[in-house]
Specification:
82% helix; elongated
Length: 167
């Protein structure tokens, strides 16, 4: 692992920006660069998810107002996350296909199904944890959102790299 970091550091220090960007945009890039690209797409999906969740939590199903009972915040947060995941998963699929992973392990319909399935499974794990922590320990909704993100990122990358796409 340390050797991979050393190789990546050497690549970035020995090349100009044009070469670095060309390598970043290549599909057959170093796994560390692929993870960085995945992270960039993930940040975009996170921004989409949080924007939709915040909008829904403000206007559709209130979940941010701490004056609401924790049971209401937990339930509303779950509803809002369920809406937001549709938008963020679509964004993630498009950006992962266009920039990060190579298609072809499965027919595109099956690939999209597996992509959505992996997203929903990791989302369900994080979604179950959030309301539990809000209800059981009274933690703030924003902290529960952070935990949802951590769980989802780890599960999604591993499953997408080794199960959904060619790699």
């Amino acid at each position: 692992m340390m050797q991979q970091f050393a190789d990546a550091r050497r690549f970035f220090s020995e090349n100009d920006w044009r070469t670095i960007l060309a390598r970043m945009n290549a599909r057959d890039t170093h796994p560390l660069i692929q993870f960085i690209k995945y992270g960039i797409c993930g940040v975009g999906a996170l921004v989409v998810h949080q924007a939709v969740w915040t909008a829904c939590s403000t206007w559709l199903y209130p979940a941010i107002d701490s004056s609401l009972p924790k049971e209401v915040r937990a339930l509303n947060s779950m509803y809002n996350n369920s809406i937001a995941v549709v938008f963020s998963t679509f964004f993630a699929y498009v950006t992962n296909v266009k920039w990060v992973f190579e298609q072809g392990r499965h027919h595109w319909v099956k690939e999209l199904f597996y992509f959505m399935l992996v997203s929903l499974l990791s989302f369900a794990a994080g979604l179950a944890a959030g309301p539990f922590l809000i209800h059981k320990y009274g933690i703030h909704s924003i902290v529960a959102q952070g935990l949802l993100v951590v769980v989802s990122v780890a599960v999604n990358f591993v499953c997408r790299k080794f199960f959904v796409f060619k790699g």
